[in-house]
Amino acid sequence: MKDSKIKSPYTSVIHAGQHPDPAFGSVSVPIYQTSTFAFENAEQGAARFSGEEKGYIYTRIGNPTIKALEDNIAFLENGYAGIATASGMAAITTVITALCDKKSHIISTASIYGATRVVIDSVFSKFGIETDYTDTSDIRNIERCIKQNTKLLFIETPANPTMALTDIEACAKVAKEKNIILVVDNTFASPIIQNPLNLGADIVLHSVTKFINGHSDVVGGIIVPESRDLFEQIQKVMTLIGGNMDPHQAWLVLRGVKTLALRAEKSQDNAMKLARFLENHPKVKWVIYPGLESHPQHALAKKQMNGFGAIMCFGLKGGFEAGHQMINSVKLCTLAVSLGGIESLIQHPASMTHAKVSKEDKEKAGITDDLIRLSVGCEGYEDLEEDLAQALDKV
Ligand code: LCS
């Protein structure tokens, strides 16, 4: 079946870009675990390098196993093509390196993954790139930050860890008017739940470490630009800097992505029920989950997401101390950073994923000390509820 005929995401995660191998008909995409590809003769080598002949040269530049994953995610995100990277951070830093120069200004979501903020502030700032962080959930804040030299609008929605949403369509409109490139980190939603390119974004990227791979056993990233022009600019820099994915890593992610639609369905069903359970629990002060009517942007979630995802954050009436007691008391959920795995993970962002963000910046971004982040997995709901209930009893 041609990829273009696929209608359902349950089909595309399994089949898009993943075809029986022409060599022996292997149904699972083979792991082409090689650094380099033999040329038949010197002329062919020269023709591959000049671009006259299509074909593989060297794995940093391209590899069939990695290409299968790139094609799969590019299809899921409806983009021009994919660029797989060694990690989500490699995806982010490659995009910024490729598109910004020493005169560039970036506008970014204030509540963004800790390392993204730290790399922008401590590494890209060395090369003259200036960044303003703002609450991008209000488009007026973005408009206020725009400068003559604003090159990128880099948003994360839902945001890590506050679960604040940003209106992708509204951002795309402003970005187009001002000739700014809109980049969306779609890690928290996954391509099953949100497709930023369809809403007008120029580039979507993921930490595939999370939902796309889904088994907490691989670190990886991917960039999917909407146009050939952006693809070529970014791919060139990725192959030069060398933040490429490895073939074995790509194969593991190909294996994981096949169940993405099923995992998304089960995990967000669990998450919806757990969010309601927590919201009604006497020891819980607040819960922020896009599926709850109490989420300040519940209407936007319904508009731009296809479901509400599997991540939430909450705070207990007993604040920081009580939250710590709770995360120390879970038995089924694992106390660990990362998210989007098949198993439920719980952590305390202020002292863990966002520990290196200054106290002042954390406060401005709404990353409070009492905030606990829960990434809900695919376990049976009753076991998850029982675990959270017994952990809350210990508080
Ligand atoms: N973007 C988002 C939204 C993330 O949450 C992360 C990692 C990255 C990018 C970076 O991806 P990586 O290089 O790790 O593949 N977020 C993590 C988190 O919240 N806990 O541990 C890692």
- The CATH topology label of the largest domain is Aspartate Aminotransferase, domain 2
Which residue ranges are poorly predicted, with pLDDT under 50 across at least 5 consecutive positions? Answer: none
The profile of the biggest β sheet is: 7 strands, mixed
Strand-pairing-aware structural class: alpha/beta
Instruction: Find the CATH superfamily of the largest domain.
Output: Type I PLP-dependent aspartate aminotransferase-like (Major domain)
- The coarse overall form would be globular
In short:
It is built from 14 helices and twelve strands.
List its traits.
395 residues, alpha/beta, Aspartate Aminotransferase, domain 2, Aspartate Aminotransferase, domain 1, 2 domains, seven-stranded mixed β-sheet, five-stranded mixed β-sheet, 14 helices, 14% strand, binds ligand LCS
Structural commentary:
With 395 residues, the chain is α/β, with parallel strands linked by helices. It is 38% helix and 14% strand. The protein has 14 helices and twelve strands. The chain has helices at residues 9-15, 42-50, 64-76, 88-99, 114-122, 139-145, 168-177, 228-241, 247-257, 260-279, 298-304, 319-329, 359-365, 381-393; strands at residues 83-85, 105-109, 130-134, 150-156, 181-185, 203-207, 221-225, 284-288, 311-316, 334-335, 345-347, 372-375. Strand 4 (150-156), helix 7 and strand 5 form a beta-alpha-beta unit. The model has no long low-confidence stretch (mean pLDDT 97). Ligand LCS binds at residues 87-89, 113, 116, 156, 160, 185, 187-188, 207, 209, 219, 221, 337-339, 353. Ligand LCS binds next to helix 4.
